[in-house]
From TrEMBL:
This is HPr kinase. Its main location: cytoplasm. GO terms for molecular function: kinase activity. The lineage of its organism: Bacteria, Pseudomonadati, Myxococcota, Polyangia, Polyangiales. Residues 5-93 form the HPr domain. It is found in: Cytoplasm. It comes from the Bacteria. It holds the Pfam family PTS-HPr. GO terms for cellular component: cytoplasm. GO terms for biological process: phosphoenolpyruvate-dependent sugar phosphotransferase system. PANTHER family: PHOSPHOCARRIER PROTEIN HPR, PHOSPHOCARRIER PROTEIN NPR. Keywords: Cytoplasm, Kinase, Phosphotransferase system, Transferase. It comes from Sorangium cellulosum (Polyangium cellulosum). Belongs to the HPr family.
Length: 94
């Protein structure tokens, strides 16, 4: 069992940013992984990636850079999956 830590920065590219639906998708995805995941916005505010309210409070609009930090056995997989979700615009057309 390892406790790796992984941190990566991603840019929100969907037109509506981290609105309720996108935040819910991110939280549901984060909940699938056995690790602690936090998100940090450009102002230094951080949130638990497994909390919809926390993610929404980051106010991540289009173009905002979000840092994803995870620790635990599935940290690398979780950060990679969150990056893919962000890159896919949370499944939105724009």
């Amino acid at each position: 069992m390892t406790s790796d830590a992984v941190t990566r920065r991603f840019t929100i590219i969907n037109a509506r940013g981290l609105h309720a639906r996108a935040a819910t998708k991110l939280v549901q995805l984060a909940g699938r992984y056995d690790c602690e995941i936090s998100l940090s916005g450009p102002d230094g505010q951080s949130a638990n990636a497994k909390s919809v309210m926390g993610v929404l409070l980051l106010c991540g609009s289009m173009g905002t850079q979000i840092e994803v930090h995870a620790t635990g056995d599935q940290a690398a997989e979780a950060v990679s999956a969150i990056g893919e979700l962000i890159a896919s615009r949370f499944g939105e057309p724009e």
